[in-house]
Amino acid sequence: MKVRRAWRPAQLVERRRETESASTLVLEVTDWPGHLAGQHIDVRLTALDGYQAARSYSLAAPTNGDRIEITVQRVPDGEVSSYLVGEARDCDTVEVRGPVGGWFVWQPADTAPVLLVAGGSGVVPLMAMIRSRGAVSSTPFRLIYSVRTPRIGSTTMNFAVVRLRTVGSTSRFFTPVGRPRASRVRSGG
Ligand SMILES: Cc1cc2nc3c(=O)[nH]c(=O)nc-3n(C[C@H](O)[C@H](O)[C@H](O)COP(=O)(O)OP(=O)(O)OC[C@H]3O[C@@H](n4cnc5c(N)ncnc54)[C@H](O)[C@@H]3O)c2cc1C
Predict the structure, then answer these.
(1) Distance between CA atoms of 51 and 170, rounded to whole angstroms?
(2) Are residues 132 and 81 part of one domain?
(3) 68-93 burial, b for 16+ CB within 10 Å, e for fewer?
(4) How far is CA 85 from CA 19, 63, 72, 148, 150, in A?
(5) pLDDT tens digit sequence for 106-136
(6) Which of 100, 122, 139 is the last residue of a domain?
(7) Residues 57 and 139 occupy one common structural domain
(8) Do residues 73 and 28 share a domain?
(9) Whose Cα sits closest to atom 17 in ligand 1?
(10) Closest atom, ligand 1, to C-alpha of 56
(11) Ligand 1 site: residues with CB under 6 angstroms?
(12) Does residue 78 share a domain with residue 40?
């Protein structure tokens, strides 16, 4: 528990652009204790003048040795997300603390069917669950995901998209347009 509360250096070793405004950052943290899908970390930045800012980010992938992944959506004028998505470069070092949170986790040993519901960057911890499942489990998963701007381009999405709805898109690939309604979700149409 002590280790999880301590801030520790994390070096940026890889980054992947997921959408126009979101990137996945792979960080290397020496002696990372491991985590469960659904947990998050705190990330702390320190400016040259000593000013610090810390924010929480969900872990986006299963435990992989000392490497952890977060997917950050840039918030307009956001202090920390703007740096992580727009400015952070390979070998830059931030500080992380965690893993945090045990109330919203999924473990591959769970065999009950899973319904995942998310909007925007809320999909990040669910992606960790989907990736954990992909590695070792055949538990039935269904994801209902709402986004403002559809873009299915990520190479890391290893599941079939049946239907995706948005509030504002007119793309022919994502009809019918509109907020998801219970009746449509139930029918799958
Ligand atoms: C458990 C948890 C998990 C999370 N996981 C993720 C994740 O996986 N991915 C992700 O992208 N995010 C995640 N978040 C959100 C993340 O922690 C940050 O809140 C987010 O990145 C914005 O931080 P920021 O520093 O960029 O923005 P901030 O600087 O905090 O600003 C946020 C907004 O408030 C406005 N603002 C700031 N100060 C003022 C002010 N004084 N007056 C008026 N407006 C102001 C800014 O313009 C901006 O639009 C998570 C949050 C929690 C709690």
Answers:
(1) 44
(2) no
(3) bbbbbbbeeebebbebbbeebeeebe
(4) 11, 22, 7, 19, 19
(5) 998 888 999 998 888 898 999 999 988 876 7
(6) 100
(7) no
(8) yes
(9) 56
(10) 17
(11) 40, 55-58, 70-73, 75-82, 121, 124
(12) yes
Which atom of ligand 1 is closest in space to residue 75's alpha carbon?
26
Residue ranges making up the domain that contains 14: 2-100
pTM of the predicted model as reported, rounded to 2 decimal places: 0.86
Mean pLDDT value across residues 170-189: 58
Number of domains in the chain: 2
**78 Cα–ligand 1 center, Å:** 6
Q: 23: CA distance to ligand 1 center in Å?
A: 15
pLDDT digits (tens, 9 = 90+) for 135-171: 677 888 888 877 766 665 444 455 555 555 555 555 5
70 CA closest ligand 1 atom index: 8
Looking at the DSSP assignment, which residues form a beta bridge with residue 72?
23
Report which of residues 133 and 43 the model is more confident about.
43
